[in-house]
């Protein structure tokens, strides 16, 4: 969306993204089709209230809503809180609770571009088993970890299927926010060895089950996991809207017992 440098051009883009005609947008916004047409042609300057009404009807993410306000000549409305600033707040307490409840199985909090912001013990145990202990403070991006040739790929037996499915979600993200940052993430992932070919061959012709599991194997240990992704409801902050809580669940008793064994306190000899 970097080339759409005017409010009118971006309004047209968002309306088309949502599959609405000018008349449909006018009816749901409570104005005339003529007014919407004039806004899209740049013949009418929107009021602040109209911008907010349009972004609500078009379900524009808060970050992009701020951009539309700025293009229309108004100050941003939505705040963007640093994740560290959430410490000792009810939101962080809720996230801590969710990660703790998932133990001994993995769970992580990531931002909109899959940078890991917080992980529980189960997630740390899985990473340490597969790739070894990371240096304290090491930044981890789940998208890179999955797509790169030297991280999860050597131990993920159905890597082509999983990376194909995941890249489709990143493509959807890139289409949804149309930012250069998300487009850059997608391009970076596609440039990893084997990813482009996986996008062509990784989709199974017929699904074998209700979810796509991740089949890990290292030495004699086999793990089968599936994931769920949760978001915060009714966010009023950009950071909170973009948070994702990804939880991993065992597909079989063998995997369940491995994680339970990892979680047991180590007995010193």
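^ Assign residues to that structure.
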């Amino acid at each position: 969306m970097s080339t759409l440098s005017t409010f009118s051009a971006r309004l047209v883009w968002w309306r088309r993204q949502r599959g609405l005609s000018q008349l449909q947008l006018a009816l749901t916004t409570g104005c005339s089709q003529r007014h919407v047409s004039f806004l899209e042609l740049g013949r009418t300057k929107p009021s602040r209230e109209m911008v907010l009404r349009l972004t609500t009807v078009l379900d524009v993410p808060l970050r992009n809503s701020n951009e539309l306000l700025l293009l229309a000549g108004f100050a941003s409305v939505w705040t963007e809180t640093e994740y560290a600033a959430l410490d000792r707040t009810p939101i962080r307490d809720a996230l801590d609770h969710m990660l703790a409840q998932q133990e001994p199985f993995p769970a992580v909090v990531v931002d909109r571009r899959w940078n890991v912001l917080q992980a529980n013990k189960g997630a740390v145990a899985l990473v340490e088993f597969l790739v070894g202990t990371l240096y304290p403070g090491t930044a981890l991006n789940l998208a890179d970890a999955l797509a790169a040739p030297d991280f999860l790929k050597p131990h993920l037996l159905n890597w082509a299927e999983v990376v194909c499915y995941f890249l489709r979600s990143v493509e959807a993200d890139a289409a949804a926010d149309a930012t250069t940052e998300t487009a850059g993430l997608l391009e970076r992932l596609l440039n990893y060895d084997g990813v482009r070919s996986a996008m062509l061959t990784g989709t199974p012709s017929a699904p074998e089950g209700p979810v796509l599991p991740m089949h890990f194997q290292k030495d004699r240990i086999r793990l089968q996991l599936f994931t769920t992704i949760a978001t915060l409801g009714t966010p009023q902050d950009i950071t909170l809207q973009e948070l994702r809580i990804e939880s991993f669940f065992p597909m079989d008793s063998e995997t369940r017992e491995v994680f339970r064994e990892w979680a047991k306190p180590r007995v010193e000899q």
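The radius of gyration is 22 Å.
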